[in-house]
# Entry
Amino acid sequence: DGAAPAEEKSVFTIELKDSGEKKIEVIKVVRDLMGKGLKEAKDLVDAVASGPQLIKENVKKEEAEDIKKKFEAAGAKVELK
# Structure
């Protein structure tokens, strides 16, 4: 079939899919991770209603897993791509 074996990804893009019930907690995580101000972080979290929002690109696997855990602890849904 000529398909190369799937390599395990080592670099990920993190997308916020759903802010969940605890939006304030998710905003705090966005502020901490991205160094954004309160309004910028709130706008990004609010924008999730219209579609997934990019959090970080080209993140190593360990950091991506850590970031995912922080968002999930805040009640958000995140996808690693």
Notes: Residues 61-73 form the longest helix (13 residues). The mean pLDDT is 91.
